[in-house]
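Hi there. Long-time user, first ticket. I'm pasting a complex I've been working with (about 602 residues overall). I'd like to know whether the download I got is complete or cut off, because the file seemed smaller than I expected. Thanks.
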Amino acid sequence: MRKRHYSEKGLEVGFLLVALASIATLTGIMVFLFMEGLPIFKKVSIDGFFLGRFWYPTSDPPDFGILPMIVASLSVMIVSSAIAVPLGVMTAIFLAEIASTRVREMVKPVIELLAALPSVVIGFLGMIVVAPFLQEALGIPTGLNLLNASLMLALMSVPTIASISEDAIFSVPTSVKEASLALGATHWETIGRVIVPSALSGISTAVILGMSRAIGETMVVLMVAGGAAMIPTSIFDPVRPMTASIAAEMAETPFRSAHYHALFATGIVLFLITLAFNLVADYISHRFRQAGEASL
Amino acid sequence: MALEAASERLASGYEMTERLRIRRKIRRQRRQKIVFTVFRLAAVINGAALLSVLVFLLFKGWRAVNWTFLTQAPYEAMTKGGILPCIVGTVLLGLGAIVIALPIGVISAIYLHEYARAGKLVRLIRLGINNLAGVPSVVFGLFGLAFFVVWAGLGVSILSGALTLAALSLPVIIASAEEALRAVPDTYREASYGLGATKAQTVFRVVLPSALPGILTGAILGLSRAAGETAPIMFTAAVFFRPDLPHSLLDPVMALPYHIYVLATAGTHIEATRPLQYGTALVLITLVLGLNLVAILYRARLRRKR
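Hi, the file is complete. Here it is re-exported in full:
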């Protein structure tokens, strides 16, 4: 009996150790990024790296300024969310409130399949279909630009935003909804003034995760954003987001050269930005619990 | 006389407000109709996007896909031949990732759902999983390069790529395994304890078997995620050109997503290989969406049974 008790306890501890694998991986990612990235600051000052406007890693002497990449990542993220957030939230409201059960059963798999589209395929289509179209329709020098990248990224983050928001909206208690309808509000008034406000924490989480996905997406921006390491002045300018810079250059970089370290340091910036986004999303979803009967 | 006039005026006043009320109601309902149409349109845009991607690739790619395309290696600077090494590479990378990530993910989920009591530690583990899910794919690539390829000395190989992809699909697998465990009714556990079984016996002989189909669904989703990723394998496993099939897990491979990227962006034959690009994209999307569709249908059947 006692022996059995010991092995039970041992199993639980073993399971705990395995469950720590995710944290271990996350820690490992941080450790190795810093290990390979920090040496760049022996060559460049911290503000020279973050605020430098020139990225000529292979010139002599090289320039390692990633400001154009940071600006590019942020602007691509903002423009794509301007498209994806309304579209995603509206889709979520449609699914949770308006669609009949049958329509919902049909549309939800569509959203899931959309989320599963490999990013390289979306990038490929952006390159050969959307880019020529934009170039022709708008009369601009290149269709591979900030706008195109944002459109393709929006396509990728809509499913994230829609499915998480839909969960949030769906779990608003029916009693809250019924109370509003009983007071004579129309269904739309109930959605706009009661349901969406009570699901707001979940919707914000969805939006933040969608933005984090957009800023971390690699293949799409690598293939469609145009690749120019310049600070954009319009949405028709080609840009080079951080992810694209890493993916495009890492393969040709000599091992542990300054350029190699600079790309890892770019990875640190990217990692910290997405980590911050995820922590904020986590904080919101825990701090502001969904409004329910108990909180009314 | 005065009384009559007053009551008449009062009645017409009622009528006025009543009419006003109805008119306002109609206006509010009309507004609802307009807004709902916009929402419906938003949902339609999603469907249209998916449909146009599928139809376009099918239309452009089906001519390139034939038996030779699927069973031959590329030749003549990749302008001719097929994509067999890429298919084999992608299947090996995807399966390798699942073989590594599935046990870890399922045990993590068992710990979180069956053993752990809510507290700081569980909160920390969950935070770790959520943040791991949010790490950009190219950062996984950097990690794989620094850790598996260089530090562990595995080189650019299937093993390095599979390990990197395993790290990336771990959160997906944990999430769906936990959902599967959550769906096992507590009465099963209570019945098992009531018969004198220990916790471990309950978990392995009662809970896990009934959660298995759900866990399997998660594994398929994880596999499809791993198979479609490009950035994590760019520096850890994939190579530009390697016509023979890999002999060991320490060999580098070609892979479908990387092949599309390479053909579409690099080299001197971008236009000449266009049909091959469409064909490869069609094969990749069939593989990934096919796996997803299997998982979705299977899960729908499970839910209906319950």
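A couple of notes from our side: The mean pLDDT of chain B is 91. Chain B has eleven helices and two strands.
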